[in-house]
Amino acid sequence: MQKAGAALLDKIGPAVLVAHSQGATPSWLIADVRPQLVKGIVAIEPTGPPFRDQVFSNQSTRSWGLTDIFLTYDPPVNSSSDLLIEEIPSTNLNLSSCILQKEPARKLVHLLNIPILIEIGQASYHAVYDHCTAEFLLQAGANVELIRLENIGIYGNGHMLMLEKNNLEIAEVIHQWLQKNIFLPYANAQSNTSDIFDSFISEKKQ
User: Fold this and answer.
1) What is the distance between the alpha carbons of residues 97 and 81, in angstroms, rounded to a whole number?
2) Domain residue spans of the chain
3) Which of helix, strand or coil describes residue 44?
4) In this structure, CATH architecture of domain 2-190
């Protein structure tokens, strides 16, 4: 999946990766090998949390934090066992504890310049632990924003929120985030901002 995703970006040029649940895992992996071509990641209730399952089991997994496959850290690591981790207890009874790196944390060097959105529905089983993925990314130096839909007045959504009756309202939240964090900054960096989307999608890897 990583090789296929990288080959696709090599062919089509820069893109924003929009992923849901298990589909988020390839997003981290593709961004790690093509950071210059991934302009943003929208992770809707991504597989997680880092290092350990929650809710359905508590098995250790995702030994590289976000994935079971190599990710690039700085300082470099030769094995996922080189990542020193610890459990951080939750101060909120409704949220799970998180497993994060021990400080000083290694950085996910290829994700540092990629805007990332993590979006969570109020009634989803992800609601208790997706904050751990956001905290892990923040600790690793990523530019990540966590949006809980109930905090912006959108209530009751489960994990399959794209199938629910208010899916267009949720899509508009993503659209506004993309405008603010990716398309407008990109336009401001161009000499001609009149064709922002055409400029964005036509840019090719040099």
Assistant:
1) 21
2) 2-190
3) strand
4) 3-Layer(aba) Sandwich (3.40)
Q: CA-CA distance, 10 to 204, in Å (whole number)?
A: 8
Q: Among all residues, which ones are annotated catalytic?
A: 21
Answer yes or no: are the C-beta atoms of 96 and 50 closer than 8 Å: no
Contact 186, 39 (CB under 8 A): yes
Strand order in the sheet with 38-44: 15-20, 38-44, 115-120, 143-148
Name the residue with higher pLDDT: 72 or 202.
Answer: 72
177-204 in b/e form (b: 16+ CB < 10 A) is bbeebbbeebbeeeeeeeebeebbeeee
Query: Is residue 203 over pLDDT 90?
Result: no
Q: What is the mean pLDDT of the chain?
A: 93
Encode pLDDT of 173-199 as tens digits. Answer: 999 999 999 988 877 777 554 445 555
Pick the closest to residue 110 from 1, 6, 4 (CA basis).
6
